[in-house]
Amino acid sequence: MSHRQPKIDTSPKVSDEVRKTTCYMCACRCGINVHMKDGKVAYIEGNRDHPVNRGVLCAKGSAGIMQHNAPSRLRAPLKRVGPRGSGEFEEISWNEALQIATDWLAPIRAENPEKLAFFTGRDQSQSFTSYWAQNFGTPNYAAHGGFCSVNMAAAGIYTMGGAFWEFGQPDWDHTKLFMIFGVAEDHDSNPIKMGIGKIKARGAKVIGVNPIRSGYNAVADEWVGITPGTDGLFILSLVHELLRSGSIDLDYLARYTNAPVLVNMDPKSPEYGLLMRDADGKTLVIDRKTGKLTPFDQPGVQPDLAASHRHAGVTHKPVMHLIAERYLDPQYAPEAVAERCGITADKIRIIAAELARVAFDEEIVLEQEWTDFRGETHKVMKGRPVAFHAMRGISAHSNGFQTCRALHMLQILLGSVEVPGGFRFKPPYPKPVSAHPKPHCKVTPGKPLDGPHLGFVQGPDDLALKDDGSPARIDKAFTWDNPMSAHGLMHMVISNAHAGDPYKIDTLFMYMANMAWNSTMNTRGVIDMLTDTDENGDYVIPHIIYSDAYSSEMVAYADLIFPDTTYLERHDCISLLDRPICEADAAADAIRWPVVEPDRDVRGFQSVLCDLGARLNLPGFVNGDGNQKYADYADYITNHERKPGIGPLSGWRMGEDGLTHGRGGPNAAQLDHYIENGGFCVQHIPEAASYYKPWNVAYQEWAVGLGIFDSPQHYIFDLYVEPLRRFQLAAEGHGERQPPDHLRERIRTTLDPLPIWYPPFEDERVNTDDFTVHALTQRPMAMYHSWGSQNVWLRQIHGHNPLYLPTKLWEANGFSDGDWARVTSAHGEITVPVAHMAALNENTVWTWNAIGKRKGAWALDKDAPETTKGFLLNHLIHELLPPKGDGLRWANSDPVTGQAAWFDLRVKIEKADAPSETQPSFAPIKSPVGHGPDHLEWKVGT
To answer: Which segments show compositional bias classed as Basic and acidic residues (predicted)?
Structure first.
């Protein structure tokens, strides 16, 4: 009897149609192919043609199907009917919801627009939401950057016109040494994984600097388990060694930085410490050929790094002199910093020598001619093949701004920025800081704000202060407390509004910001603030409007809920005006579009703002006849022009001779073109413009043609950041606008124009002999914010989170598998499960962020592991530092930018009896969507 093999279909048809859009499961914005069957989502894979991921897709991206079908999705607008925090709502119509919001907001706008505080989370549409807030007229708008990585962004822009990740990337094709600082796995994960794979296959070396060896650090060739908060000291020790050995790129520094620019060294001058300038405001250098003072940018000038200028008995020195004097000081020698950093002196020297060896002994030369802004033509492009990348790990400290500046200075001293093999900017960066707006705060009842909310101050005159010197913004951004807070201070909004400091507000309006749980410091305190009532029994914060796609913890604390769509049901714009998806070799933007229609009574939040803006008669949202200008967000994306010829999307615009990219008028079919092209548009940079972007004439002309600039924006890097010195001068008594006396010393100390290091503020406020342990959170690759831990697939990867302890602490406390610990900070206490991890700084503990959930939220079962074994370190952190006896409560933030200092936390640990669930335990909140089924299964198609 013959054997017959069974017939197996090895290539089953998984879809009837493929719809291409952009992922939203993290901030990578990868391209995805959404396979549809019978009108439903059947399968999600990466788009091989997409410039970001080139077909690669991570676990989060693939699990988007579960996010789209999550039982926690909100179903209709909600009005609170029980006390705040109870989760008791009734479903209402959109018309009623929008009418309630209009009734609250219209009187505010007519009488006192600042009584609206409008803050958004990781919404990726900030150019639009800020435009709405600006037209409303409130000064109180910002997004999540103030508690994420504003230190990295601001430090980079003030120093060199851009920073890591969305601003730029390593030259993956030529880098020979890649060094990462404080990088977890959640940000830019697919491009970094692809890049590391590429350079390791080529034999390049990866050095990871992080207290925790997970993810990228686990695959690094060398791991540096640094003590948290000391990265800046380590970096400045590397600078010390490079200067001591002469391993810096002098030609690069002379041509492309302000290292040769002269500094006013006359202590009697009101311009002491400022850069010397000519009558036109151009900074001055000594020309090596003539020995004379000359503006830095004149044709043929060769700036002299060594020459000083003697005038009226005072010797004015170039910035390079000040750099050498400061960082050659023995305080930065490896022996002086080793113990504090947790790195041996020999290790510091070896890393510095390796940076120098690769940068200078393995120089890359590309046979590509280019012309610089002084008119000099170069026959080749020379590169230093050392590239750096850093993220929140070095940013989220009270010394984070200066630490990030130190890292940018390190790569500039090596000559490895915007050269082959080094760090490369992505359009629309680089931008000189002068090309960015300054913050605006002038409020006029019934009128728009006088300009953009956020920006980059150049000195005290740009602060957001009222005429009486009090803060103009509820978060106190752009004040003497944190003058250069380019992204605002989202983590301070609720506590300031509750305290009525600097003033009371009427309505808190938030989007996708889980401020009642994992996105806030002092979680218990913030919950109390949101529910607190005054002597009349009224809520201290009278109205709270919130928009989210899911039943998060924050939903329970709002009075009115606008239910958002999932990312597969909406239009979105990943714009050059905002947070684009560019690569170093190309400008690129993208869209999301409704690959499926919602099966609930929900609307995309941005479309809701179009409707609400029209109801409030906001300029920009109504036509001259008073009718609604944009029917929805798709209409806005297509037809809005920020200025003539420049809109949210750069592709397929209407030019004089037909369709064009870059500059052009609105095109009614623009979104259709994006959809046909896979959801994105790419415009490649000419080869001669690929490197040296700030100084390359070809790049600047290309950028003007695309609409990034209206005219070339050549500039040099600012190793010495003059705006910082202007604030120091004010603290020293110069100028009309003066800081309060209690801030003078802090401003003089921390706003130094050259990078410095100082201990994290919490180290000075707690007894470090008692609180000996550093505590950190880190996001896993499979999760992003709190979104992922409701996801059926992703929960199987991270259903709960232990606190990881290094071997030293594990053994000292006698821990065993299955044990629990009591963890105490100066602010609070938690009791949590622990686990052993050897690859960890010996004085540091850590856990995954945002795994722990509150009972009743996210449609999870009341006994879900996220609620019984999951936890947050947030309960141990406060938005204010512990008191220091001066009668003041200082913000737990960076004094320059106001970034939340999440990672300064100090704790002590002791073994504890295992409770029934992690502590603190919160009472369940009632879910407006109920709980998900015990078994989630569905079949798509037949």
So the answer is: 932-942
